[in-house]
Amino acid sequence: MPKANRDLMRDLNTNLVVNLVKTGGPISRAELARQSKLSPATITGIAGRLLRTGILSEVAVGPSKLGRPPVLLRLNQRAGYVVGIKLTEYGLTTVVTNLAAEVVHSAESTASLVGNPQVALTAIETAVRDALAKSGVKRKMVLGIGIGLAGIVDAAAGICIYSHILHWRDVALSEPLRRRLQIPVWVDNDVNTLAVAEKWFGAGVGLRHFLTVTVGRGVGLGVVLNGEIYRGAFGGAGEFGHTIVAPGGPPCQCGREGCLEALVSEPVLRTQVSAALGRPVSSQELVTLASGNDPRVTDLLSEGGRQLGLALSNLVTLLNPERVIVSGEGARLGPAFFEPMTRAVRETAFAGVGASVDIVIQRWGDDAWAIGAATLVLRELFSLPAAGEPPRLALVSGA
Predict the structure, then answer these.
(1) For labelling alongside 369, which of 22, 145, 192, 221 has CA 20 to 30 A away?
(2) 3-state secondary structure 216-280
(3) Residue 54, Cβ neighbours under 10 Å: how many?
(4) Average pLDDT estimate for 327-338
(5) Which secondary structure element, helix H or strand E, spans residue 108, and what is its range?
(6) What is the average pLDDT score of the chain?
(7) What's the pLDDT tens digit per position in 174-187?
């Protein structure tokens, strides 16, 4: 999105109109005036500027019983683009999306990032340049870059405070990458990025209080309270997988014993099933076995689901969310795992709150983590600031 367009979006009324079109479009100018409480003249002026800059477009004429039929407005999804990147110890998943978080380009690249933050910075720079070249998206049309990684992240500063998977401490990402690429960069915990994606485009749309729980290589948590991601005092909120549920239990990769992750993560379940069957079991085979009738497999998955459900019931009791969204690679395990999980939440949460919470199993595709990272930037575009704060999109004015 060219700088002039971003400058236009700094205006609070303009941001409000764009957000209403995004969530309710196609929509008429009259309806925008009604919902925004702005005057028809103000709406006409804002819409005219947004049409001239290409942020909005006019679409099919809507129905009308009297007078001239209204022309409807919608967001031009190609008015800007975002790059999203998910970091793992083995490499990067990179996507380029439009303003509707639809992927226009996706790529995987390998690099050994464990203990190598400088290698990561170079790999990210290369991945972004390659993605833009191959997608045909010009740099001036890029709103920003979002990066998700496992660990404790200072999202405001763009610093990874600690990642036990990557073996990083106090690694700055946003500022070095912004200097290299001349594009704004946002960084957050990878599960938080999924929670943002759910809030804007997924099962969290319209909800004020929900949890996103991921089950895969680890167990993660994104918390949305009063419509905002809750990160805690130092960015460490959501390390659900490292709550100790079995003191003195199995060792966890974090170095402690008895963490939830050491009981119910996908690698742990796969190891247990492999031992029960007397042979190695791959991740894909575990999914196949989960839908079968072998009690050696289903009993292990059922116990894992029950353990996860008991831990979740504590979260539901503490936070009383409207919905719990479960995603990640483990979402493919099906009823053998998730029915015991759901039953444990329903039966053990305090005072019936487990019975009222909605539980959704979200089977995201392989690009989900990177799309979530891209949504970090889209959130900055579409979110209105709180009273007294400058519009959030001012953050990208220097691109």
Answers:
(1) 22
(2) CCCEEEEEEECCEECCCCCCCCCCHHHCECCCCCCECCCCCECECHHHHCHHHHHHHHHHHHCCC
(3) 14
(4) 92
(5) strand 103-110
(6) 88
(7) 999 999 999 999 99
Helix intervals (H) in 182-225:
190-201
Q: Are residues 253 and 327 in the same domain?
A: yes
User: Please, are residues 168 and 162 in contact by the beta-carbon 8 Å criterion?
Assistant: yes
Residue 182: CB partners within 8 Å, gap ≥ 6? 139, 399
Examine the fold and report which residue of 75, 109, 131 is the final residue of a domain before the chain moves on.
75
Tokens of 83: 């790059």
**Assigned domain for 36 exists:** yes
Q: How many Cα atoms sit within 13 Å of 334 on the Cβ side?
A: 12
- Which of 326, 293, 295 minimizes the C-alpha distance to 312? 326
pLDDT for position 65: 64
Is 200 within a domain?
A: no
Instruction: Report the predicted TM-score, pTM, of the whole model to 2 decimal places.
Output: 0.83
Three-class SS state of 37:
coil
- Pair (227, 357) in one structural domain: yes
pLDDT at 399 over 50: no
Q: What is the CA radius of gyration of the chain?
A: 23
Close Cβ partners of 153 (under 8 Å, ≥ 6 residues apart): 159, 160, 161, 187, 188, 189, 192, 235
User: Are 352 and 382 within one domain?
Assistant: no
